[in-house]
C-alpha cells in the first residue's frame, strides 16, 4: 500500500504541471478573435462541471479532511500506474497544444485564421487533448483513493465528452468539409488504430 500523502503529492505534481502546460495557451487564447462560437451557455455549464470534478473536489480532498468518509485503501500498483498515466497525459496535453498552436480554443468555436491541423500527434488521433484528459481522469482515480474525489474527474469529464464530441466534429465538418471528412476516415478519435 502506498502512503496517502505520497499519492496526494504525486497528484499535485501532475496537477501543477498540467496547469503550467495549459496557462500560456489560455493567455494566448484570450487575445484571439473568434469568428463563430457554439453552445455558449452549454459550454459554460460543462466547464463548471469539469472544474468541480477535476479541480475543486480533488483539491478539497488533498488539502482537507472533508471527504475522508469516502476514503478507501489503495494498492501500491494503483499509485505507480496512476503516476504513469498522469505522465503520459501531461505529454499528450503538451503535444496536442503544441501541434494546435493558435488553433486551440477551450470552447467550440472557429477562430480568425483557423487552420486545419492533421500533423504531429493529430496524424494518429483526432482528439489527443481529450485522450489526455481521459488519462488524467484515470490517474486521478488511481492517485486519490476516495470515492468522491477520485471518481469525480471521470464522471464530470465523461459527461462533457459525451455531450460535446459530436458537436465538435460537426462544427469541423461544416467548416472544413471534405478535408475533415477524409481525416475522420483515416484516424480514430482517441486511441490510434482502435477507437
Terminus-to-terminus distance = 33 Å
- Could you estimate the helical fraction of the residues in percent? 55-70%
Q: Please write the string of helix (H) and strand (E) elements.
A: HEHHEHHH
Main sheet, how many strands, which sense, barrel? 2 strands, antiparallel
Task: Explain this structure.
- With 195 residues, the protein is mainly α.
- It has 6 helices and 2 strands.
- The protein has helices spanning 4-29, 40-63, 76-100, 128-143, 149-176, 178-186, and strands at 34-37, 109-111.
- Strands 1-2 form a two-stranded antiparallel ribbon.
- The model has no long low-confidence stretch (mean pLDDT 92).
Short description:
The protein has 195 residues and is mainly α.
Please name the defining characteristics of this protein.
about 65% helix; elongated; about 200 residues; 6 helices; single chain; mainly alpha; two-stranded antiparallel sheet
List the SSEs and their pairings.
Elements: H1 4-29, E1 34-37, H2 40-63, H3 76-100, E2 109-111, H4 128-143, H5 149-176, H6 178-186
Helix pairs in contact: 1-3, 2-5, 3-4, 4-5
Amino acid at each position: 500500500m502506498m502512503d496517502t500523502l505520497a499519492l496526494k503529492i504525486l497528484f499535485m505534481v501532475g496537477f501543477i504541471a498540467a496547469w503550467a502546460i495549459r496557462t500560456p495557451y489560455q493567455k494566448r487564447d484570450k487575445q484571439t478573435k473568434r469568428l463563430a462560437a457554439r453552445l455558449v451557455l452549454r459550454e459554460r455549464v460543462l466547464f463548471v462541471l469539469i472544474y468541480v470534478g477535476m479541480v475543486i473536489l480533488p483539491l478539497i480532498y488533498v488539502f482537507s479532511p472533508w471527504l475522508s468518509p469516502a476514503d478507501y485503501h489503495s494498492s501500491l500498483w494503483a499509485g505507480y500506474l496512476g503516476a504513469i498515466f498522469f505522465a503520459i497525459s501531461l505529454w499528450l496535453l503538451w503535444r496536442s497544444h503544441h501541434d494546435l498552436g493558435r488553433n486551440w480554443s477551450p470552447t467550440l468555436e472557429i477562430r480568425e485564421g483557423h487552420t486545419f491541423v492533421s500533423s504531429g500527434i493529430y496524424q494518429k488521433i483526432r482528439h489527443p487533448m481529450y485522450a489526455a484528459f481521459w488519462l488524467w481522469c484515470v490517474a486521478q482515480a488511481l492517485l486519490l483513493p476516495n470515492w468522491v474525489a477520485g471518481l469525480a474527474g471521470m464522471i464530470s469529464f465523461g459527461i462533457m465528452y459525451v455531450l460535446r464530441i459530436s458537436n465538435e466534429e460537426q462544427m469541423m465538418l461544416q467548416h472544413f468539409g471534405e478535408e475533415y471528412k477524409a481525416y475522420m476516415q483515416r484516424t480514430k478519435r482517441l486511441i490510434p488504430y482502435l477507437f
